[in-house]
Design a protein that fits this description.
mainly alpha
């Protein structure tokens, strides 16, 4: 299957599971209202908290956990949805040939053709493009981005310096995702996996007193690989990466003397392997992801709880 076709399936399945999307705005609005979209980051936070031991006993800091879930869902999640689901490149391409717009008021005694006159014309064209083109195409998404950035800054400040640093890392990954796709509202499964799984897992770990040890970070990265590779399960390397990363989790648990947890994860891997042949029978990748995701999420929690 061509990459563009897989990207369309990826966007359709996540943004509008009940039907095909109708434009950039419909896609990201559908994803914002999708329960599936919220479960991934929140579940990864719970896994990170479990890996740190913060969910053991009776002294769970529920307000702090709620703030953290708000950060990864309403902050990082909404920001990422708005950024990756909007075609930012189209108005930017039109700006290169934009010539309409009245010059803004120039300074007194500005001569025609002078730098000041050219600057006033350029600013007039920029204002016209911003009002008539950019805001018409991306205005709502831009507003959501601004609000999500403010929410991220406020919640990150309340939760501490470590969360501000992780938020900066999330923003860097989002920027890489936009650069990779050229800002054309195309899917970036690798970046999506880092933002949905790896960084929320690490956030849950650090907020509840855990440390960035090799096992905890290794589990977060391994499951992020599996999460993203599931969208490439129709090609050989995607299947190898998705299954192989979970076998790495099993190996790590064996090394950590948790054979029971390793055995449970192997059992949870069986349905994921069992559904692979259906891809050869015409089922789309989105179907495979929808039916294997609960098994992977269960494996995430089992592995995190045994650290």
């Amino acid at each position: 299957m061509e990459q563009s076709t897989k990207d369309k399936l990826y966007l359709t399945a996540i943004y509008a599971p009940s039907g095909p999307p109708s434009g950039d705005m419909a896609r990201w609005q559908a994803r914002l209202t999708s329960l599936t979209n919220w479960l991934g980051p929140a579940w990864a936070v719970l896994c990170g908290a479990a890996a740190s031991g913060g969910l053991d006993g009776q002294d769970i800091d529920w307000p702090r956990l709620a703030l953290l879930i708000l950060l990864v869902d309403v902050g990082w999640g909404v920001l990422w949805v708005a950024l990756e689901s909007t075609d930012w490149a189209a108005p930017l391409r039109r700006w290169r040939d934009w010539r309409s717009g009245e010059p803004v008021a120039s300074l007194p005694y500005t001569l025609p053709g002078s730098p000041g006159d050219r600057a006033s014309r350029w600013l007039g064209q920029l204002c016209a493009w911003w009002r008539d083109d950019f805001l018409a195409a991306c205005g709502l998404a831009f507003s959501v981005v601004v609000v999500a950035l403010l929410v991220t800054a406020v919640l990150g400040t309340l939760l501490g310096t470590d969360l501000l640093l992780l938020s900066a890392a999330a923003l860097a990954v989002m920027q890489l995702g936009l650069a990779w796709t050229g800002g054309r509202a195309e899917a970036a499964p690798a970046c999506d996996a880092i933002i949905v799984v790896a960084l929320p897992w690490l956030a849950g770990l650090v907020v509840f007193g855990g440390s960035f040890t090799l096992p905890s970070v290794g589990l977060a990265l391994a499951f992020a690989l599996a999460w993203g590779a599931a969208w490439q399960a129709d090609v050989r390397w995607g299947r190898l990466l998705g299954v192989g990363s979970q076998f790495l989790v099993v190996l790590l648990l064996v090394i950590l003397h948790s054979p029971l947890a390793a055995g449970v994860i192997l059992v949870l891997l069986v349905p994921q392997l069992g559904l692979l042949p259906w891809l050869q029978r015409g089922q789309p990748v989105s179907w495979y992801v929808r039916y294997t995701r609960p098994w992977m999420m269960a494996a995430m929690m089992v592995a995190a709880w045994m650290l």
